[in-house]
Amino acid sequence: MCGRQEDASMNIRPERGGFDGRSPGREPIFDLPTALVVMVGVLIAVQVGRGFLSPADDVGVMANFAFVPDRFLGEAAEYVYPGGRGAWAWTFLTYALLHDGWVHLAFNAAMLAALGRMVIARTGLVRLLALLLAATVAGAALHLAVRWGDTTPMIGASGAVAGLFGAVPRLLFAPPHAPLRSVGATLADPRARAFVFALVAMNVVLVVLGTAPFGLGGGEVAWAVHLGGFLVGFLGFAAFDRH
């Protein structure tokens, strides 16, 4: 999960052999659903596009589309930040498209691809998108609550990725086509508890260190974004489960 301040369903593919040099039944190493390839491609395209902007124009992009808690202090929306009150709505989502450099982007893109591949098999494309959007909004909302009035821009797809991290323990330790277990039943599984504990411990360590390739502007970790997204994925996954 990398947060900074500053689907198609999985296809059942026919066995192929001979013409492409692979033995029958052998799957490629990077066999991502097209929807996830497109999502990662959009993040990369945004980062590449920002590289062609002047420093002043890139600041303008950040001012318009990053999530800044200070923007919600009434007059600030009218006189300090571009976009007016309309930005109150769109920045709850658009911050996820911006990243603080290629390392930040690479981590989030890798997690989006790896975890998304697991989750989309259970949810399908539409429900996966709904989960990612809900986790993105929830992460920003919790960040706003704990950093009210902060002027530091927050960027990165960490809320969405955290939602996937939250969904994984609901799925990982159960049979693929079994009914979804309740939150209580999931936490009763020691493997799922260990997974959740490891995620919490990782975020605590990052907060204590204060610097990492995943945080607020200047390297500070946007832990509330991670927590908000994770809670949506873990506690609310039943709303996105197509089974």
Automatic annotation (TrEMBL):
GO terms for biological process: proteolysis. GO terms for cellular component: membrane. Gene3D superfamilies: Rhomboid-like (1.20.1540.10). It is a multi-pass membrane protein. Its main location: membrane. It comes from the Bacteria. Keywords: Cell inner membrane, Cell membrane, Hydrolase, Membrane, Protease, Transmembrane, Transmembrane helix. The chain crosses the membrane at residues 32-53, 128-148, 154-173, 194-215, 221-240. GO terms for molecular function: serine-type endopeptidase activity. Residues 1-25 are annotated as: Disordered. Pfam families: Rhomboid. Residues 89-235 form the Peptidase S54 rhomboid domain. It is found in: Membrane. This is Rhomboid family intramembrane serine protease. It comes from Siculibacillus lacustris.
